[in-house]
Amino acid sequence: MEADRSTDFLIIGAGFSGLVAAERLSSAGWKCVVVDRRNHLGGNAYDGLDAAGVLIHHYGPHYFRSNSRRIVDYLSSFTAWHQVSYTIKSHTRGRYWSFPINLNTFEEYLGRPSNTAEFTTWLEQTRIPITEPGNSEEVIISQVGRELYELFFEGYTLKQWQRHPRELDASVCGRIPIRTDRDDRYLSESFQALPKQGYTAMFETMLNASPGVELHLGMEFSEARARWKHKHLIFTGAVDEFYGRRFGPLPYRSLRFEAESFSAEELLTREAIAGQPGFWQPALQVNYPGPEVPFTRIVEMKHATGQQIGASTIMREYPKNWTPDDEPFYPIPAPEARAAYERYATLAAAEPATSFIGRLATYRYYNMDQVTGMALAEADKLITLYGSNL
Ligand code: UDP
Question: CA-based, 20 to 30 A from 273: which of 63, 238, 244, 245?
């Protein structure tokens, strides 16, 4: 196909990184074409109402959190926020546990009341001293010892990644806080909230504020590249795919979701378990670390969105080996996967007029705020390089 059209920036991927970069560049007067092979905005943060009218996250829970005022301020131009304290539980040995590990969990483990001093002493005696934890097993056993590690982390991690915690970077299980007080929030960042009308609505507002951005959904990268002449390409897809997997495919982990909706009436039978009417389970997310079920967690998003609706929807999450027909959800945070990525990173770094940003293009287990920060920084860099076009 002849490149019969032209744009300043051709941006591949309409997720967080692609849309933030497009908004910034368009605010500097540059024309941007954003394409995505999927038929919706927002990448894996895509959300919307399901058939029961419940607001769900189609690709698993996306809990926005950040310690960066700058990033929160930036996104606040496009959305109001619904403050949430993300609370979750773990379900194992036939019961619910307070999670992440905190003083309540310790009391549940002991079967009697305790206090921070006792828990701290117990941890000192139980933890396995390791000065510099080098993997995900060490990072947990060095804080809480083997028993709690086996109870909450080993099985979950084996299911989620199909590899032993020993074979994963310390940062994977190290993401999960461990506290000796009663703070049972899943996350520790200072800002924790969801876009009030959802991520998709936030991205739509972002696009409406960017008249210089043209969006094409359902279009492959190869087609877009052939169609639009461009001065610079921003690629947010999988970096190995960009290079035709010439060094072999990078490993990814994928997921399969199973949604189930319940009417207000059906939920009446769950009231004792959920602890309140209108819900199916007692928390936003319940983790299932044990091998007795094949899923890792069940998410009931209505707990977090605050949506006023009688029905509710739960999503069971089944980890899955990635094949080229699946969405790649996670890069594998492990030394040999990173080494394989480095070969592609070397090629990417040498591209004169292509930027690689986002979780897939940089092969990093990044959260949404980190991806936003990366896109803001790249847009600043490009505006310095090409100047403003206002
Ligand atoms: N994890 C675990 N048990 C849990 C929760 C998490 O072992 O109950 C480990 C697991 O390896 C997981 C990682 O910690 O992949 C990070 O968990 P998080 O909930 O942050 O994962 P994400 O939401 O990004 O899938």
Answer: 63
Q: What is the pLDDT of residue 211?
A: 95
pTM above 0.85, yes or no: yes
How much distance in Å is there from the Cα of 42 to the middle of ligand 1? 23
**Among 86, 146, 157, 255, residue to substitute to test ligand 1 (most atoms within 8 Å of Cβ):** 157
CA angle 318, 54, 365 (to 5 degrees): 40
Please list the residues that pair with 316 across neighbouring strands.
258, 298
Tokens of 338: 């990173």
pLDDT tens-digit readout, 34-47? 999 999 999 999 99
Asked whether 58 and 321 are in contact (CB, 8 A), the reply is: no
Q: Quick check: CB of 105 below 6 Å from ligand 1? A: no
Q: Which CATH class is domain 5-48+67-79+197-250+331-386?
A: alpha beta
The dihedrals phi and psi of 386, each to the nearest 5 degrees, come to -95, -10
